Amino acid sequence: MSQNILFLAHIDESGKSLPRVAFEVLGAALDLAARTSGVLTIGLIGANIQGAAGALASIGARILAVSGADFAHPRYSTDADAAEAICRAASPEFVIAPSTSRFLRVIPGVAQRLSGQVDTHITSIEIADSQVSAKRWFYRQRLEAAIQRDARPWFLLMDSGCHEPWTGAAGTANIEPIDVPISLDHTRTVFAGIRTPNCNAQTIRPDAKLLFVAGAGWCKKQADGKNHVAEAEVAILSFLQNSGASLGGSKSLVDQSGENQAVLGFMTHLNQVGQTGSTPRHPKGLSTCCHGEEPHVVGWRFINERRAINLDPNCGWARGKADVLYVTDAFQVMAKLNALLAKK
Ligand SMILES: Cc1cc2nc3c(=O)[nH]c(=O)nc-3n(C[C@H](O)[C@H](O)[C@H](O)COP(=O)(O)OP(=O)(O)OC[C@H]3O[C@@H](n4cnc5c(N)ncnc54)[C@H](O)[C@@H]3O)c2cc1C
User: Fold this and answer.
1) Which residues of 175-200 are buried (b: 16+ CB within 10 A; e: fewer)?
2) What pTM, to 2 d.p., does this model score?
3) Which of 140, 231, 236, 250 should be mutated for ligand 1, with most atoms under 8 A from CB?
């Protein structure tokens, strides 16, 4: 069942290379090609795709590219034109692309133009009885679905952290450029820039080995009857700096800024983990001053080893939600941890 597989990617914000997730998804596309004795074609979109094409040269695949200033930044109209042109040139049965925000906005429209179908947030692509199926999670990672479709082309947008990245030596790529004429009404939207939340530390680190989660307890009155928010800020920021961990927060904690309570200045809604927050992927997680309620813990679905620190021996973590629970004061533990890390 030889299949035409198109791996589609765009250049990242640096303007030079592909985003990290693209290499992971390329690994999955190559796997599928190998298991179906399929032919892999690579499609690239960006202002300048030479460097990225060179990085993939050793794969030996056909490389189709739409490049030029019009394709430098995310814009639905031009991105859709570019992806459509590449798909028409490659005539694939499967289009496999990374779930970047740029592609999540545009690929469903491209699937519609090609009379194909699309599935997003794919976590794995498998073959059983010569049938390709793709897996994804539903209902905030509570249900896993295995999807099969007859429609072709079938577009699969794959999430990060789900496959080993492809690595290989760079070389000289033979690129087939595709000319995509852009009409004036397709350039009405102009890219102005990227705005990031106003915080003085970059705290969300998807590649970190550890997810450190802070809960509302950090801002609550402690044994002496007082809040210790300033101390909490120093303890958490020092730990993040010394350990390289990524920072998550419970809903109660991130909501406090809107309720005029004492807050951790660097904590934003982007840090929220859980049912109405994110579901990050990290090998380990450490929860501090957070109760471990189900709507929060469902966001820990993809954390392999879970530990928690809580004063309350009856907290949610104690009921099978953490591998290890330390029933103790998180302020004291973090002070000790920071001292040990600083020595290192
Ligand atoms: C529809 C819905 C969706 C939701 N989605 C989410 C979501 O996405 N994410 C989320 O987080 N929540 C979510 N929630 C809210 C969730 O149910 C909890 O209310 C919330 O997670 C509680 O946050 P918390 O544990 O930080 O605060 P609290 O429940 O106030 O717990 C604070 C904890 O800190 C501990 N503590 C205090 N001081 C110390 C200390 N010195 N050392 C150690 N421990 C200490 C206390 O013992 C306590 O257990 C959702 C709720 C609903 C209804």
Assistant:
1) beebebeeeeebeeeeeeeeeeeebe
2) 0.78
3) 250
